[in-house]
């Protein structure tokens, strides 16, 4: 370990003085005050990252006909002509033991046409909620063009003492 410390010290001496990092030596209780909340935050972020789901969303604009969407794909809206709209119902349930905050975001070219009834809400343990997802194509949508994107659903566990 001494060789690594020597290497680090020699590298640090070559850096300009304003780039050198000078941290004070912390006592154990000071490390605990800083480290425990930091560890809790990292664990919370890890849980949030593990509970994020990404779905592809798409719609093909046609001249006049309505096409059938793939029933296996949650956000595939099929083929629609300009000025048409379609509704999907999304059911989310909290199977966990703590309250969960849910955020739904839409990214990509389909974002301007997709309206989510309630994109930010919380669910208590065992609670279930239906969300209306509505796709409305404007008259300016180009026939023959496919609009696609991603729908990201993030579930953040949180605990509140109140």
What is the topological layout?
Layout: H1 2-14, H2 28-50, E1 52-61, E2 75-80, E3 85-93, E4 100-108, E5 114-116, E6 120-123, E7 128-136, E8 146-157
Parallel strand pairs: 1-2
Antiparallel strand pairs: 1-8, 3-7, 4-6, 4-8, 5-7
Quickly count the helices.
2
Strand count: 8
Name given to the CATH architecture of the domain at 53-157: Sandwich
End-to-end separation:
49 Å
Q: Give, in spatial order, the strands making up the sheet with the most strands.
A: 2-1-8-4-6
CATH topology name of the domain at 53-157: Immunoglobulin-like
The CATH class label of the domain at 53-157 is: Mainly Beta
- Mind telling me the CATH superfamily name of the domain at 53-157? Immunoglobulins
Q: What is the N-to-C succession of helices and strands? A: HHEEEEEEEE
Ranges where pLDDT stays below 50 over 5 or more residues in a row are: none
How would a crystallographer describe the biggest sheet?
5 strands, mixed
Q: What average pLDDT do the residues reach?
A: 84
Q: Which class of secondary structure composition applies to the elements?
A: alpha+beta
């Amino acid at each position: 370990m001494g060789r690594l410390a020597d290497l680090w010290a020699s590298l640090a001496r070559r850096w300009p003085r304003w780039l050198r990092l000078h941290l004070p030596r912390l006592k154990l209780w000071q490390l605990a005050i800083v480290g425990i909340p930091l560890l809790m935050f990292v664990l919370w972020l890890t849980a949030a990252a593990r509970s994020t789901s990404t779905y592809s969303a798409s719609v093909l604009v046609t001249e006049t006909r309505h096409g059938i969407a793939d029933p296996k794909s949650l956000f595939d809206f099929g083929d629609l002509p300009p000025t048409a709209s379609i509704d999907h119902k999304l059911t989310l349930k909290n199977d966990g033991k703590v309250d969960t905050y849910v955020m739904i975001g839409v990214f990509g070219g389909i974002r301007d046409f997709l309206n989510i009834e309630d994109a930010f809400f919380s669910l208590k343990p065992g609670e279930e909620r239906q969300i209306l997802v509505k796709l409305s194509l404007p008259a300016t949508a180009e026939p023959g063009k496919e609009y696609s994107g991603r729908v990201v659903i993030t579930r953040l566990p949180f605990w509140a003492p109140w």
